[in-house]
Write a structure and sequence with these properties.
alpha/beta; 335 residues; five-stranded mixed β-sheet
Length: 335
């Protein structure tokens, strides 16, 4: 598959380069951090107000990406030191292929903001999902949307080998379903909202969670960068945690919303609507068994096994516990 070949090639060609460039970037007082547009989060309030630069004491080059798979490739090449809100499936694909990445924190949980939409003209819902066999679907391969697509098709008993699956970033998939070029499109954020203008979801977020289809993102980084820059990584996690606390408290949302909306490239109404479907776990929750203390590693193993079964990746790791670093969050928790 294109995804597998591209990713494994990037990992094999950049294993040594990534660690060296990560350390070099930090040493020269600048790091590059990846994030998504149309994906509004509290950290963007701190981003705009340069709270990260003040806390870390380095310049930060913020670069937007279209998919988590692109983030993995950029971290493999050493071009990016930290990725904010990388989807767990692309993270699992990368680590399964041998890329040495680690989760720093749980960025956001969002079961209702990552889904697949069926074109309105087909009039297919969860009771007639079997009719999707043979249909054309736009899916950003190796992402949370891809995992959700595979899990839903498995639940409905749809043979994906009968489908024409086209690898498309969410924005492209939204345009494709709007133009009638695909029968179903999968994605998240602003692209998902545009997809819904031309179709319907098969399962709600609650229905997906009931089936064990979790959807969350993490802040990730090359393991070498985490090991060589523990204080910097801890301070990054601390600023993020403080931003989440401010948002979760509620009394600063009116001040934060317009800043976040502008940085995300969205209007305020769409931003508020999107963030209402997001959950930003506390540091204590993230360190608990429900998240990085246990369930996250188990969930990642489940994601990897689904991808192996679908032929998306050749093999899975025996365990993903080593792909989680709790040191930064433990440092924040003790402050």
């Amino acid at each position: 598959m294109k995804l597998k070949n591209t990713l494994m090639g990037a990992v094999a060609g950049a294993a040594l380069l990534a660690g060296g460039q990560s350390a070099m970037a930090a040493g020269h007082g600048e790091i590059t951090v990846a994030y998504f547009l149309e994906w509004p989060m509290p950290f963007q309030f701190a981003k705009v107000n340069e709270m990260y630069e003040e806390a870390l004491g380095v310049d930060i080059n913020w670069v937007s990406f279209d998919t988590g798979t692109a983030m993995s490739a950029a971290m493999a090449s050493g071009d990016v030191q930290i990725s904010v809100s990388q989807g767990i499936p692309p993270f699992v694909v990368a680590t399964s292929a041998g890329q040495d990445l680690q989760i720093i924190d749980v960025a956001v949980s969002y079961a209702d903001n990552d889904n697949c939409v069926v074109a309105s003209g087909l009039e297919i819902d969860k009771d007639s999902a079997g009719e999707l066999a043979g249909k054309k679907v736009a899916v950003p391969l190796g992402t949370a949307a891809h995992y959700g697509f595979l899990s839903q098709m498995n639940h409905f008993g749809v043979d994906i080998s009968s489908m024409e699956i086209v690898d498309m970033a969410p924005a492209d998939g939204a345009a494709a379903i709007a133009q009638g070029q695909v029968d179903m499109s999968c994605g998240w954020g602003g692209a998902l909202r545009r997809m819904k203008e031309h179709g319907n979801v098969l399962l709600t977020g609650a229905e997906k969670e009931a089936l064990g289809i979790l959807v969350f993102d993490a802040t990730t980084a090359p393991a070498s960068f985490v090991a060589e820059n523990p204080e910097l990584v801890a301070k990054f996690a601390e600023v993020t945690a403080k931003s989440n606390e401010m948002w979760n408290a509620g009394d600063m949302q009116a001040e934060m919303l317009p800043v976040i909306a502008k940085d995300a490239g969205m209007d305020e109404d769409a931003t508020a609507e999107t963030m209402a479907t997001f959950v930003f776990p506390t540091v204590e929750d993230q360190l608990s068994e429900a998240w990085l203390g246990g369930n996250a590693a188990t969930f990642m193993k489940g994601v990897a096994d689904v991808f192996v079964g679908a032929g998306s990746i050749p093999s899975a790791l025996d365990s993903y516990e080593g792909a989680i670093s709790k040191d930064a969050l433990m440092s924040v928790s003790s402050m």
